From TrEMBL:
Family annotation (InterPro entries): DUF4220 (IPR025315), DUF594 (IPR007658)
Xref: Pfam families: DUF4220, DUF594
Residues making up the signal peptide according to the UniProt record: none
Protein name (Swiss-Prot/TrEMBL): DUF4220 domain-containing protein
PANTHER family according to UniProt: OS01G0798800 PROTEIN-RELATED (PTHR31325)
Residue stretches making up the DUF4220 domain: 1-243
């Protein structure tokens, strides 16, 4: 028992060492990409299981990317390039990225890198045998001098340990990581016995069914539920500056009770970030739009030799339309986060004044624009470590102060609505942009007032960014009136999509890795997707 405990704690220490980016980088340099030829066999596996196997087969791309070594060297495995391209075809790319990131989470934050090795499997086979031997020896030992309660407790502890170690062995053997190990093992006889004869597939199905049964389902339940834990939730954060700046004044009847407590115990900014942010689920249409944009973006010639985007954030859709000059070029800002602030407020103004945005057929595009705009602002305010470039906290705070000073202090059209909302606001925990609060008209009023105040100005020393904001909104409205089509909506949507992809591409690898521990981020999905598309672009060049 002492030997088993010693080895187990040694495993934990070794897993901590193996779960660092330095260790992953060292393994990438010394180990060639693993080719799992058995992942092509879909006749004996469900669609979801087949996708998991392909994720393991392409996992070397994720590992190379996370340590900033995504370019495959010339001395890599022969035929690996063509193999990667084949594996990428006819695969639901979003689901594949989610599963690969879940595998990376296993490497970084669990003992997968240690368990699923020859030594790890040996430990799991020996451990239950050792504990069973201890149990038999204790059974054969005379117990006349021992207290009955102590004997019973010892039996319970040994039996529990035997059950836990047996469960650990079965889970390890039935894990998808075992498929990856068996596919690349040097012992051909083991690969033949386990994979070619279908014995491992049978064990895998039994283990998955048992897990599903323990969690309250039924044996043979849907594969969607079985692998739900490996998939991203498609939930993203939302934060809107105009929504924040039209919040009720801090009075006794309008300020939430928790907000007063938060301001008493800590800084006011923390409460504003948490209380006035929300969440929304990405729609299928938005996913499809992002995929099409990335497919067009990641063609040969749009990336440098390191797989990084050559152009500035938002430049590609503007340049493609011949608009990357003058006001639109300046609106992208000198720093990345400055560009987010300018485009975020200008987008709200444009949607408030655009006639085309009010059309029924434009609703999906408007929804996507608002979703991406509020998401990028959420990252800038609540998770700036997920964005490239220098933080713009002072610019953000100054812009908020200017917007608050411009908001209408009274609401003569809706006095009853304000009185009804007072009691509700006292106990409101979240007041996000899409929380259902009735401040949409106030946000439109603030957007219109901002446009009227700054659109005709050439420059304002008090609020220079608001001048850029109003001029950008004016340029977009002029383009809409000149074209008479929905091209302005498409332009705004593509600019935000380009900003989103740029954020994922330029974010530090350490930030992507750390965010996996708390559920992952949309930009992390897009970063890994870009790495795969870049790999394919190299192979097809």
């Amino acid at each position: 028992m002492f030997a088993v405990g010693f080895v187990k704690y040694g495993e934990r220490t070794w897993a901590l060492k193996c779960g660092t980016l330095e260790s992953i980088g060292a393994s990438v340099k010394t180990q060639p990409p693993a080719i799992h030829k058995h992942s092509h066999r879909q006749d004996e596996a469900s669609d979801e299981e087949f996708l998991v196997r392909r994720a393991h087969s392409l996992f070397h791309v994720c590992k190379r990317a996370i340590v900033d070594s995504s370019v495959i060297e010339k001395d890599s495995v022969e035929g690996q390039e063509q193999y990667t391209t084949k594996m990428m075809r006819k695969v639901e790319l979003w689901a594949l990225m989610e599963i690969e990131l879940s595998l990376m989470y296993d490497v970084l934050y669990t003992k997968a890198a240690v368990v699923h090795t020859a030594a790890g499997y040996l430990v799991r086979v020996v451990s239950p045998l050792t504990i069973a031997a201890s149990l038999v020896l204790f059974q054969l030992t005379p117990k006349d001098s021992h207290i009955g309660a102590d004997v019973a407790i010892t039996y319970v502890l040994l039996g529990g340990a035997l059950f836990m170690e047996t469960t650990s062995l079965v889970n390890a053997l039935g894990s998808s990581w075992t498929f990856a190990f068996l596919s690349t093992t040097r012992w051909r006889w083991l690969r033949y016995v386990a994979l070619c004869n279908g014995r491992w597939d049978s064990l895998r199905r039994r283990v998955v069914s048992l897990h599903h049964l323990v969690k309250g389902g039924f044996p043979g339940g849907s594969s969607t539920n079985r692998y739900k834990s490996r998939r991203w939730s498609y939930i993203i954060g939302q934060y809107n500056m105009l929504h924040l700046c039209t919040r009720p004044a801090d009075t006794l009847l309008t300020s939430p009770l928790l907000g007063r407590l938060a301001r008493t115990l800590g800084p006011n900014g923390w409460w504003d970030r948490k209380h006035y942010s929300g969440t929304v689920k990405i729609s299928v249409s938005v996913k499809k739009h992002i995929s099409l944009h990335m497919g067009r973006l990641y063609k040969h010639g749009t990336l440098n030799s390191l797989g990084m985007l050559r152009k500035k954030w938002g430049e590609e859709p503007l340049d493609r339309r011949g608009l990357y000059e003058g006001i639109l070029k300046d609106s992208l800002g000198v720093e990345f986060q400055e560009g987010i602030i300018i485009w975020h407020i200008a987008t709200d103004i444009f949607l408030a004044k655009s006639e085309r945005a009010k059309a029924e057929d434009a609703a999906p595009r408007v929804e996507a624009i608002v979703m991406l705009s509020d998401y990028m602002m959420f990252l800038m305010v609540d998770r700036p470590y997920m964005l490239p470039g220098q933080p713009q906290n002072r610019l953000y705070q100054r812009t908020c102060e200017n917007l608050v000073s411009m908001r209408l202090t009274d609401d003569p059209e809706h006095p009853n609505r304000r009185r009804r909302g007072m009691i509700k606001n006292l106990f409101r925990v979240r007041d996000g942009p899409a929380s259902g609060t009735s401040r949409a008209s106030e946000r439109r009023d603030l957007a219109n007032r901002l446009y009227d105040e700054y659109a005709s100005r050439r420059f304002s020393h008090d609020a220079p960014r608001l001048t850029y904001v109003a001029r950008l909104a004016k340029r977009l409205l002029q383009k809409e009136r000149a074209d008479g089509t929905a091209d302005s909506l498409d332009l705004v949507l593509e600019v935000w999509t380009d900003i989103l992809v740029y954020a994922g591409n330029k974010c530090s690898r350490e930030s992507h890795a750390k965010k996996l521990n708390s559920g992952g981020e949309l930009t992390t999905i897009l970063w890994l997707m870009a790495e795969h598309l870049y790999q394919v672009s190299l192979e097809e060049a």
